[in-house]
Amino acid sequence: MKYYILFGPPGAGKGTQATSMVERYNLRHISTGELLRKEIKAGTELGLQAKALIEKGCLVPDEVVEGMIESEFNTVKGVDGFLLDGFPRTIAQAQALDQMLAKRNEQLTAVVSIMIPDQMIIDRISHRAAIEGRADDANVDIIKNRIATYHNQTEPEIEYYAKNGKYNEIDGVGTIEEVRDRIFALVDKF
Ligand code: AMP
Hints:
It is built from nine helices and five strands, in the order βαβαααβαβαααβα. It has helices at 14-25, 32-42, 45-54, 62-75, 91-103, 118-132, 140-154, 157-163, 176-187, and strands spanning 2-7, 27-31, 81-85, 110-115, 167-171. α6 packs across α7 (140-154). Adenosine monophosphate is lined by residues 10, 32-33, 36, 53-54, 57-60, 65, 86-87, 89, 93, 136, 146. Residues 10, 32-33, 36, 53-54, 57-60, 65, 86-87, 89, 93, 136, 146 line the site of adenosine monophosphate.
């Protein structure tokens, strides 16, 4: 099985690119953000707790998302691998993922990181707000907090994965097709 992490700041195009990758490599796309939004929509206890944090641009507790990932690993069949999008978002989550994979006698295949500059994050997310109607996309202060959360808590993972040789960076500036082709050129090698 292949295990990929689709990494990058909010608005880098991870969700969009995930669709093409899933098709080409027969992967299961696991977006923790999407799973959390489903819980919110369904009005579950977990959704209620997550909503307050998401709408402030903060992260939900590590255990919550780790449980979601493990449950997907345990239940999804018939794919050649998994594409993690929005997880791991902290070093603690990265370590938890390593443990989950070790327990399954598996290891991470690669991190595919899509990079864009901060100003482009705000422009892209503001544009997406009009299309997808996400509450956390609609307010510039929340977007700024998500960018700060990314720099403080998620970006340190770059060094974590660079050290074990798993980190690969793609330039996320360009058309959807240009970025997709850069990703395919990289992932075809694994
Ligand atoms: P996303 O759709 O990946 O942008 O995620 C939307 C929001 O869900 C984030 O801003 C966080 O509040 C929450 N979230 C998603 N994934 C995680 C994660 N791995 N750890 C903690 N919070 C997360």
